[in-house]
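Thread: assembly with ligand

MN 10:42: here's the input set. Chains plus the small molecule as SMILES. Want everything predicted jointly, not piecewise.
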Amino acid sequence: MNFFKKNRVISALSFFILIGLLFVFIGCTSDEDTNQQFELPELGYSYDSLEPYIDAETIEIHYTKHHNNYTNNLNIAFAKHPEIDETLEQLLANPSKIPADIRTAVLNNGGGYYNHALYFSLLKINNGQTPSGDLLLAINQDFGSFDDFKEEFVNAASTQFGSGWAWLIITKNGLKVVSTSNQDTPLQQGIPILCIDVWEHAYYLNYQNRRADYISEFFNIINWDKVAELYEAAK
Ligand SMILES: [Fe+2]
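BT 11:07: finished. Tokens for the full assembly:
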């Protein structure tokens, strides 16, 4: 190999080594280091499409501020532990697996992220639709009737003290209505297929202190087809 050819080979090798080092450096310093990044899910409908039951401003603030903040804060927490392999659902169902230094952040913001993702995905004006098919059969079997289920769900939502949620979940023993505080999920008890957010930010602009009216009107915007899909997927 002559002198110039040898120099070209050395230059090429140096170039590739430099590129390699650059990739290692980027890999060590960028957000790609984290295993999981959460994105604000698409809403799938316009802010005003649930009116008059929930006003556009409430949906916009709830989605772009509250849900978005939970998403951002969840990503900040996860970025501290790129070694996490479990899904968010697995962690929320088994909090002892969450690294201690981010446990509270994940329970609050991961719960907020998860709960709101489900809530917003289930909203659609239903024009009086109620459950049908296998979901209705299961509701009748486990609650007696749709009206009995509704009474129990409304009661759980109404009596939740302070901020929280009411849920319809699938457990080993069938369908059950439960409530949770703050951004706690019911994932330790079962798989949720319906929820209502009873934090004041979900209804205050429209209903002020009238939580009972919001809960009652909520039955006009439950997308029962979607609830049935979740039921079929989870049963
Ligand atoms: Fe909320």
